[in-house]
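Troubleshooting entry. The earlier prediction with NAP gave an output that would not parse, so I re-checked the input for stray whitespace and re-submitted. Clean input:
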Amino acid sequence: MNPTAPATRSVTVIGSTGLIGSQLVQHLGAAAHRIVEVSQSTRADVFTGEGLDDALAGADVVIDVVNSATPDDSAEGFFRQTSANLSAAAATAGVGHYVVLSIVGADLLAPVAGYMRGKLAQEVAAATSGVPWTVLRSTQFHELTESITESLVVDDVVRVPDASIQTIASAELVEILAGIAVGDPLDAIHEVGGPQRMSFADMAHTVLAHQHRDLRVVEDPAVGYFGLPIEATTLVPDDTAQRGATPLADWLARS
Ligand SMILES: NC(=O)c1ccc[n+]([C@@H]2O[C@H](COP(=O)([O-])OP(=O)(O)OC[C@H]3O[C@@H](n4cnc5c(N)ncnc54)[C@H](OP(=O)(O)O)[C@@H]3O)[C@@H](O)[C@H]2O)c1
């Protein structure tokens, strides 16, 4: 037996069929951890609570990567309810580590966005559950950069916020999240981001070059992030954040 090999853990993944959840299941399964998958189509409904106690029985770790089907203000109620159900079930089951995936800047955007208030409620639910916990706040994923850029096109001009963004490949976020989840609880918020802090204008130029499109990119302080007002550094992590390795241009070239 290799004494340095991490112990096999029983891990319940909430939101197991999503972009992040499905990769987590694959990654942790490949490392020989025992996985219980939770989504409405597989095992339990974390919003109603149906099937949740059963899905958490015997779990060493629970990872909450559930998402609301709607990104608008109604997401606040969804995250409040799902995390209230989950924190109660995790405490009852005696789970050893409760991990939540949140978003860099959730605290700064909470006053203006119900979705972000929901993410903060999800963080607080873990931190006050009585279960050892870790919150990982991530930046946006490389996978979203084409849709973010498209959302900023108006009359063949890309109008971008005068702000920075630091996207990460979701596969690299999953690797970091999985490592944290099977490690010791931090009882703290930890941040992760991509390798490059870019202006929104640079991100748009990178996406447009990949798409072989020749559109003008204009910085406009009146433009927000999906309608939310942002400051220059709202969406970027602090300097101590863990970082992914693959720059956006390289990731787009391989996608
Ligand atoms: N997008 C970003 O830039 C970003 C950045 C940082 C963090 N995050 C966070 O990353 C997390 C994961 O995002 P994602 O893109 O992987 O989400 P996603 O692809 O939309 O997946 C959501 C998952 O939640 C499940 N789900 C929804 N309602 C449920 C319910 N009532 N009961 C059980 N399962 C339910 C879905 O399965 P069913 O519908 O089958 O139930 C699915 O498995 C989110 O919390 C998001 O806030 C996102």
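This one parsed fine. The two ends are 39 Å apart (CA to CA).
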